[in-house]
Write a structure and sequence with these properties.
Blueprint lengths: L1 H5 L1 H12 L37 H20 L3 H17 L4 E2 L4 E2 L10 H9 L5 H11 L14 H10 L6 H4 L1 H4 L26 H10 L2 E3 L6 E4 L8 E8 L2 E9 L3 E8 L4 E6 L2 E5 L2 E9 L2
Parallel strand pairs: 4-8
Antiparallel strand pairs: 1-2, 3-4, 5-6, 6-7, 7-10, 8-9
Length: 301
């Protein structure tokens, strides 16, 4: 907590820089530097599409997400004025993104011209927490469609897509995308690459984010309150029939042992002594306490 608090001034300065790049319509315009987003084939140097007005829906929504997250940090550290400003600005910038909305497709376009649509923009819009339930459901229907005709995320930005899947309660969708990482070994990789071929950066940190998602999204082990003082476990095991795993915690370790057949989930969850939480699975919520929790049969459907 001390480290995070010490970084708040830097966080504010960075956000102020980007807020200074807003036009009178509250839309973000980045006209200098390398505006990288993802190594998508067809995106020059990884830069997303930018409209004739100099604006990108992806960066607009990314700033909204950053403001929301920063607001939560300010709130946690007892800075209600900074938190209020961040939440207010996030709401204003979300409203300013309305020109990107395409009612016919139920998606946000990459630019105001509506020439292209990407998974990137939909993921950030969902993660913003600013959408109505109806709009979020429309985006989800298109995002999860087998043939959505959307520009797909590649290695780095898939992290945000996986986060969006998890927030939609569709973490099972992550399994299909993990096939890329499952295939790395047969192509001779011992580490995770930076981007899709052609690439010569074959050992890149951001390519390893599935390790995080295997714990946070597939096993569903996430903080339920600031400082990880409580935990929420909501697994989406997909093809897994048995799993034993652990996650470091400031007070020790969170361990899980799940066994799943065609009908039920059983297992054990171990929490640090003073940490409680809940397990959510198959429409059932079970309260968890510090120490060992034995999980009775829960129907998998």
């Amino acid at each position: 907590a001390g480290l995070a608090r010490s970084l708040l001034p830097g966080q504010r300065a960075i956000l102020d820089y980007f807020l200074g790049c807003l036009g009178p319509d509250n839309r973000l315009r980045l006209d200098r530097g390398w505006c990288f987003a993802d190594w998508v084939p067809g995106w020059r140097w990884g830069n997303p599409p930018v409209g004739k007005d100099g604006c990108s829906a992806l960066f607009q929504w990314h700033l909204v997400v950053a403001l929301q997250m920063a607001g939560k940090l300010e709130q946690y550290f007892g800075e209600p004025e900074f938190a209020s400003r961040n939440f207010r600005r996030a709401g204003e910038l979300a409203l300013a993104a309305e020109p990107y909305w395409n009612q016919e497709r139920g998606l946000y376009a990459d630019t105001i011209g509506h020439e292209s649509f990407s998974e990137h923009v939909q993921a950030m819009a969902i993660l913003s927490g600013q959408l109505s339930r109806m709009r979020c459901e429309r985006i989800a229907a298109s995002l999860l469609a087998p043939a959505g005709n959307l520009t797909r995320t590649t290695i780095s930005f898939s992290h945000y897509l996986f986060e969006a899947f998890q927030s939609l309660g569709a973490a099972g969708e992550i399994w299909e995308r993990l096939s890329y990482w499952f295939d790395l070994e047969k192509y001779g990789f011992l580490t995770t690459p930076e981007g899709p071929e052609p690439s010569r950066s074959d050992c890149h940190g951001w390519g390893a984010h599935p390790h995080y998602h295997l714990h946070a999204s597939i096993l569903g082990i996430r903080p339920a309150s600031p400082g990880f003082r409580s935990v929420r476990i909501q697994p989406f095991l997909g093809p897994l029939r048995g799993v034993d795993a652990s996650v470091p915690h400031p007070d020790g370790e969170i361990s899980v042992r799940f066994r799943c057949d065609d009908n039920s989930l059983t297992g054990e969850i171990g929490l640090p002594p003073a940490i409680g939480g809940e397990l959510i699975f198959g429409g059932v919520t079970i309260a968890l306490h510090g120490g060992l929790n034995r999980i009775p049969n829960i129907n998998c459907h």
